[in-house]
Write a structure and sequence with these properties.
heterotrimer, A alpha+beta, B alpha+beta, C alpha+beta, B: alpha+beta, 7-stranded mixed β-sheet, 5-stranded mixed β-sheet, 23% strand, C: alpha+beta, 5 strands, 33% helix, globular
């Protein structure tokens, strides 16, 4: 790891001020990706602004039809939260499938979605549940948030404060893990709620994306068979040591089917 | 006193308390006063000429004490790293042995090759400065795949081997084999890739050297499986230091699996550098460096054929394999695909003639050497995949075809140079089939099909040659070292015992197993016996731990020393009891005069030896301390049968090992708990090879693509099942304990068992390891296409 | 620039001046000389560095020491009783031969203790799934799974 200056933010406002003073600074949330990248010298921020002490960024609130999760809430907290398991069990299950227990005890929802790692799990949940990403400046709809590989709609100086999830009628997440890293080779989040059916995929493409054909098919009949015959195109999908784009495309269908099955409690 | 016989008892390990409380001392835990830190600048290129190295900037960086390059080592007359085994090729010529400088001279030959070392006050300072060492490279084309190494126009790694060939070597009667094939009823032919593996002991390699100017001596702490061999190679061949002035300590070592046998560049460089700067120098690998610089394993490309008669009797085996040596010859690289491979191709069977041709090639990759099993897993894979495939092709039951070919009379001379002393292959096969409930498999397969899963069953009946080796035979085959072991039994005046052994323990539990042996033989409590290993300053000598040799060779050396102690004790006891030495018997810790009630306990004899007031000083030296060297008269031949059952999810191609049964014959078992643990670990490494692990290089750039645990797939707890184990005993006939060794069996037998099960489940003839979900899925797609056609 | 950090480690308060880039594991190993916590990888995969921070198992090789500011840290050295008697999970690892070379063991034990605390009824499948953050190259996990099962039971009684 290279040298850097460390700043501990006491509040969101303080963090914003620190970012303003240190324009090349990076925000440190749980650090489960960032610290690793810095250790391998793949990232070299001159300044780090640690959000760990900001109480207002932590916690889970269930409010009628909406579940709001503070940006610095750890994956383990989401997985174990009664509010989450009762309102959106699929989201708790997704959180429980991220990394390993030790990573889940540190990693945060804000850190995960701000990074927009193509193989991260949360982006599928955020997109698949039509969540809203709340920042210090505005509210960003999930559909506008993920812009590409490691790219989001966040502007300089913008900090995610929480993520709000509308509670769906039913939802589930099915993940095919990379056997080595345990990231998603393909993860599919399916939900049926007020806004209709959503099918969001992570791991397969440069960033999380929806599959409108599947959504349409499921809207007319929410059953595994409805998606079983729908193939996504392999063109533009990720291809690496662990899975070709063709195989990933195949897995999108399989995982979508399984997610629907799980959402139906089958 | 009968309870002192602990042979065959699951004694809890003596070493566990320190490991469980964090009190183990691994090399990186050692801190010496004024210690400095080394960082190795490594080649980012697979193949390049070094035009110029500018170390000025690095030297001016904060905390930096020194920067050394290959030129500095050459000027100091530091020699290259030696290879310990000379293979003579088919034309009687010695293998090509290119220079292997600890720091590159003029050229780098793999990504991770050592270019320079930076020594600084802290590790981070050394690493920061490492980036300031400016190296101008002329990048050359590289070759990383075994299949490409000898192609026309392939980039040449070493001038002395213009065809990138280290040797072409052969074993067996080619003419007889060709003749047998010509008249065979059936021939089974398979092409295999034996995938390259990265050992990944969880403790990364580390070395901490210090130089003592007052005594002109060195101490090297190093994560090593064989500190005496490390010292011998380093002093005699590389640094030219007086051996007695170098102490090598391998303290607690966090797993080896072969990868810590070798003399590595880092060990040599920190030792040399500690004198240059007159301060201790420490290097601890980061995992990324382990991937690049620990010797890899396997990496064969093989064509294998089995000839059979109409009854399924094996007539001949013909094997042609090309094995990668990597960019340089690691310490024992040359003997792995030859001596430890071709000699195992008889397996458990009476195949009368066998011919094997081995081509060893250089590629722009990390050096390859022994990794758990070393040659024998590759051989077993060849034999057991051939046998199972032949059974399927000839519509014979795979157990039956094995039975028809089992060796049943011992000793048995194989056509590939080994003399099996004993074994009972029917016993292990029968027991494995029962334990695995092979009879119930059709019902389980049907039940799985109802759940949409493809279930398959596969066998592997392996044999291995362990307890390496009779030194004279090894020597005649090219070994440049002896392969005995040494032990010392020091009885203290109070009758407590310290045992010094040349067998290093890095997980195997020698501190317990060896203590069981000594306590049982001396009839004293196990708590009265401590085992010391891993320190050339304390242990008389040793050849170290590899090839499942510790109990068979190291254990026997200790037994011999114990027997010398008993023999001397009898003399002392005879004097004390005023009896003839020939009338004194020793059992259960007591010396007795036969047929009388006269007796003296062991502790009293010990005390007498050190307080020799009433003692035959005219005939006998005081003291009770004996050592012994043991050179085995033959290899040992552990063998067994593994039965694997898998279930494949046809939608994703995922394979689950749903049942794994292993019945092994390790000869006499000293501690069944420890033996089972060795089998579990070996099986998991074998399953890893079959389903998960694969070292991959980019064929264009030569970059290591699986350079971290994010990409190299290590087996985790959820990749393997609980195992069903049993053992059968045919005691080894040529060592006093009747032991054969158990460390590698699992890794040797498991890959074939898994792949036999998987090909059975999929109904395909062959599949390449590792059988990743995508490979399995593609195999199923192919089958669908074929069936549709 | 150095920064000041303080925390409680195995019940004792500690304070130090550190470079901001100091990892928690390096602080524990090099400065506190608690060398039972190990480093087996550089990508937060192997779990040999697992410790407890405020009761949660974390990989301290993947954290800055500053992230532990004010925290209550327990390492493997703080698990056994003051008189040296092993914790039930440590005892279970010994009884079931859940360790060989010992290098992954401290992380494995720390991980297992937290697992047992958080999951009341542990099945073999749960243990295998939840141990995916700890790599062992020696044991094949067979005996580790047995040990965790037994250790969890012993912790409850």
């Amino acid at each position: 790891m290279y040298q850097f200056n460390y700043h501990k933010a006491s509040s969101v406002a303080d963090a914003v001020a620190l970012l303003a003073r240190n324009p090349d600074a990076k925000l440190l949330a749980g650090g489960q990706t960032l610290i690793g990248a810095m250790k391998l010298r793949l990232a070299a921020p001159p300044d780090l602004v640690d959000l760990g002490a900001i109480a207002e960024l932590r916690g889970i609130k269930a409010d009628g039809g909406t579940l709001t999760i503070g940006a610095m809430t750890r994956h383990a907290e989401v997985a174990a939260s009664k509010d989450v398991t009762q309102s959106i069990p699929a989201l708790a299950a997704l959180a429980a499938s991220i990394g390993d227990r030790m990573v889940r005890n540190m990693g945060t929802i804000g850190g995960s979605i701000a990074n927009s790692d193509p193989a991260a799990d949360y982006p599928a949940g955020v997109l698949g549940l039509a969540a809203t990403v709340n920042t210090n400046k505005r509210k960003i709809a999930a559909d506008q948030f993920f812009k590409g590989m490691y790219e989001t709609a966040l502007e300089p100086g913008e900090i995610i404060t929480s993520v709000s999830f509308p509670v769906p009628k039913r939802a589930a997440y099915a993940k095919f893990k990379n056997p080595a890293s345990r990231y998603a080779i393909v993860g599919v989040f399916v939900s049926e709620g007020q806004g209709g059916v959503r099918v969001a995929v992570t791991g397969a493409g440069p960033s999380a994306f929806r599959v409108p054909e599947m959504e349409k098919a499921l809207a007319s009949k929410f059953s595994p068979e409805a998606v079983a015959g729908i193939k996504v195109s392999a063109a533009g999908l990720n291809s690496d040591l662990h899975a070709s784009s063709e195989y990933r495309a195949h897995l999108v269908t399989v995982m979508a089917k399984r997610a629907v099955q799980a959402a139906l409690g089958q | 006193m009968g309870e002192m016989n602990l042979i065959g008892t699951a004694v809890k390990r003596k070493e566990d308390y320190r490991f469980l409380t964090g009190a183990g001392t691994y090399t990186d835990d050692v801190r010496l006063d004024r210690q400095t830190y080394a960082y190795f600048v490594r080649s980012p290129h697979a193949h390049a000429t070094i035009k110029r190295i500018d170390k000025d900037k690095a030297l001016r960086a904060p905390g930096v004490l020194a920067v050394f390059t290959g030129e500095d080592l050459a000027a100091a007359k530091v020699a290259g790293l030696p290879c310990g085994w000379l293979i003579t090729d088919v034309n009687g010529q010695p293998m090509k042995e290119p220079a292997h400088p600890p720091l590159a001279q003029g050229k780098v030959r793999y990504v991770g090759d050592h270019v320079a070392v930076v020594i600084a006050e802290s590790y981070l300072e050394a690493k920061d400065a490492g980036e300031l060492v400016q190296v101008d490279y002329d990048v050359l084309p590289s070759v990383v795949d075994v299949a490409d190494a000898r192609k026309k126009g392939a980039p040449v790694l070493h001038e002395i081997a213009p065809d990138n060939t280290c040797y072409v070597w052969a074993l067996g009667d080619k003419a007889a084999v060709d003749k047998a094939f010509a008249s065979a009823h059936h021939v089974t032919k398979l092409d295999f890739v034996n995938n390259r593996l990265i050992p990944n002991a969880v403790e990364p390699r580390a070395a901490l050297a210090s130089y003592n100017r007052a005594e002109d001596s060195y101490t090297l702490y190093v994560a090593s499986q064989n500190p005496h061999v490390e010292r011998l190679l380093m002093t005699a061949f590389v640094l030219g230091l007086p051996e007695h002035k170098v102490r090598v300590i391998a303290p607690d070592v966090g797993g080896g699996f072969g990868s810590k046998i070798y003399l590595y560049a880092e060990d040599v460089v920190v030792t040399w550098a500690s004198r240059q700067i007159n301060r201790p120098v420490k290097w601890t690998a980061e995992r990324s460096e382990s991937f690049l610089s620990d010797a890899h394993g396997r990496d064969h490309l093989t064509r294998a054929e089995l000839a059979l008669d109409k009854d399924g009797k094996f007539l001949a085996i013909r094997v042609q394999t090309t094995a990668s040596m990597g960019a340089y010859l690691s310490t024992f690289a040359s003997c792995i695909p030859t001596i430890l491979y071709a000699t195992l191709l008889a397996g458990q069977y009476t195949t009368p003639v066998i011919y094997c041709e081995v081509t060893a090639v250089f590629t722009n990759t990390t050096p390859v050497d022994a990794y758990r099993g070393a040659g024998r897993p590759e051989a077993t894979y060849v034999v057991e995949r051939l046998v199972e495939t032949a059974a399927r092709e000839m519509k014979l039951d795979p157990a039956e075809i094995r039975r028809r070919n089992f060796i049943r009379e011992f000793p048995y001379q194989t056509p590939v140079a080994l003399l099996y002393d004993t074994g009972n292959y029917e016993a292990t096969l029968g027991a494995a089939m029962k334990l695995a409930d092979v009879a119930g498999f059709p019902a389980r397969r049907q039940e799985a099909a109802a759940r949409g899963k493809l279930r398959g069953l596969g066998y592997a009946a392996y044999i291995e040659a362990c307890g390496i080796a009779p030194s004279n035979i090894a020597g005649s085959l090219g070994a440049r070292a002896g392969l005995f072991e040494a032990g010392e039994v020091r009885v203290h005046p109070t009758g407590k015992v310290t045992v010094f052994t040349g067998s290093h323990s890095h997980g195997q539990g020698h501190e317990t197993t060896f203590a069981q042996v000594v306590a049982s033989r001396l009839g004293i409590p196990i708590d009265d016996v401590d085992i010391v290993h891993g320190d050339t300053g304390r242990v008389l000598f040793g050849m170290g731990t590899y090839g499942s040799r510790s109990i068979a060779v190291g254990g026997t050396a200790i037994v011999k020393a114990v027997d010398k102690v008993i023999a001397k004790g009898k003399k002392i006891a005879a004097h004390l009891m005023e009896a003839a030495e020939t009338d004194v018997e020793f059992a259960d810790g007591v010396f007795k005069v036969a047929g009388t009630d006269k007796q003296v306990p062991f502790a009293q004899v010990a005390l007498t030896a050190y307080v020799p007031h009433n003692y035959p000083l005219d005939k006998l030296e005081p003291g009770l301390n004996e050592n012994a060297f043991y050179d085995p008269t033959n290899f040992t031949f552990p063998a067994g049968t593994y039965v694997c059952e898998v279930e494949v999810d046809p939608d994703t191609g995922s394979t689950e090992i749903v049942s794994f049964t292993a019945v092994d014959d390790f000869g006499k078992v000293i501690n069944p708990m420890i033996v089972a643990g060795q089998v579990h670990g070996g099986l998991t490494q074998g399953i890893g090879q079959a389903l998960l692990e694969n070292c991959r290089y980019d064929s264009q750039s030569g970059q290591l693509l699986t350079g971290s645990l994010l990409d190299y797939c290590m087996p985790r707890a959820d990749n393997v099942p609980s195992f069903k184990l049993d053992t059968k005993e045919t005691p080894c006939t040529h060592n006093p304990l009747g032991v054969k060794g158990c460390g590698e069996a699992g890794a040797i037998g498991a890959p074939a068992a898994v792949m036999n099960a998987l090909t059975d489940a999929l109904g395909v003839r062959d599949l390449e390891m590792p059988a990743t979900p995508e490979r399995v899925w593609r195999a199923l797609q192919q089958t669908k296409i074929r069936q549709a056609a | 620039m150095s920064v000041k950090v303080s925390m409680t480690v195995n019940g004792k308060p500690v304070t130090a001046e550190v470079e901001p880039r100091t990892l928690l594991v390096d602080f524990i190993r090099a400065q506190l000389r608690l060398t039972g916590t190990h480093v087996g990888c550089d990508t937060a995969q192997c779990g040999a560095c697992t410790i407890h921070m405020n009761g949660a198992a974390v990989k301290c090789c993947n954290m800055l020491v500053m992230q532990a500011q004010g925290a209550n840290i327990v390492t493997i050295e703080g698990i056994a009783a003051a008189d040296g008697k092993l914790h039930p999970m440590q005892e279970a690892f010994r009884d079931h031969h859940g360790l060989q070379c010992g290098f992954c063991t401290p992380g494995m034990v720390m991980s297992a203790i937290e697992l047992a605390q958080r999951h009341p009824g542990l099945t073999e499948a749960t243990i295998r799934a939840e141990l995916d953050g700890n790599i062992c190259r020696c044991t094949g996990y067979h005996n580790i799974v047995k040990a965790v099962q037994a250790g969890a039971q012993a912790m409850r009684s």
